[in-house]
Specification:
The chain is mainly α. It has nine helices and two strands, in the order ααααααααββα. Helices cover about 60% and strands about 5% of the residues. The protein has a two-stranded antiparallel ribbon.
Length: about 200
């Protein structure tokens, strides 16, 4: 067994001691939980149990590969779930414990390269959207009726779930700087269609 594998097993054992890790020990059963959108939003599902199996079968070629999967467990949870949920907070707690244990075991927790690339691309795309465009969209969204607003929220939850922040039970915050350019354009299309439909029809 490689030396890093010993430390990796130790890290998993420490994480499993926490009661909060229970929900992360096996794959998300999205059918049982009735969340059919899960595989559409989470492109690479992973859990601590699967990571342990991968580690035992020497699937990881480096400690970085192993740590990226650990980080992905927390990232996936935070991407799919709202900040106000218990499972989101459990992921935040376990992520902090991961960092603490890595310092203790002298392991480094890297950011997922894939996630970093996606985020960088998103921000680069959104740089081409002017502040005025973002402001206009924000002001327009505030005037939309409930049905159109729900349609926009559904699109954001599907395409850029990380851009939605739940403030309380009936309020959410949409972070336009975080959404992808594709999602921004999709929202604009919905707004434009809604505006056209609301215009008075000309008589023949």
């Amino acid at each position: 067994m490689e030396s890093y594998e010993i430390k990796a097993h130790q890290l998993l054992a420490l994480l499993e001691l926490h009661e909060e890790s229970h929900e992360f020990l096996s794959p998300v059963d999205y059918k049982l939980l009735n969340i059919p959108m899960y595989p559409m939003i989470i492109k690479k599902p992973i859990d601590l149990g699967t990571i342990k199996k991968n580690l035992k079968s020497h699937h990881y070629v480096s400690i970085q590969d192993f740590m990226e999967d650990i980080q992905l467990v927390w990232d996936n949870c935070k991407k799919f779930n709202e900040v106000s949920t218990d499972i989101y907070q459990q992921a935040v707690y376990l992520e902090k414990q991961t960092i603490r244990y890595c310092n203790k075991l002298r392991l480094i927790v890297p950011y997922s390269n894939k996630n970093k690339t996606n985020n960088d691309t998103t921000h680069e795309d959104m740089k081409n959207v002017t502040y005025e465009d973002k402001w206009n969209m924000t002001e327009t969204i505030r005037t939309l009726d409930q049905m159109v607003l729900e349609k926009i929220i559904d699109v954001i939850r599907e395409k850029s779930p990380e851009s939605i922040e739940t403030l309380d039970t009936d309020k959410i915050k949409i972070k336009l700087d975080v959404i992808s350019r594709e999602t921004f354009n999709h929202i604009q299309t919905i707004i434009d269609e809604s505006t056209l439909e609301s215009l008075p029809q000309k008589k023949p």
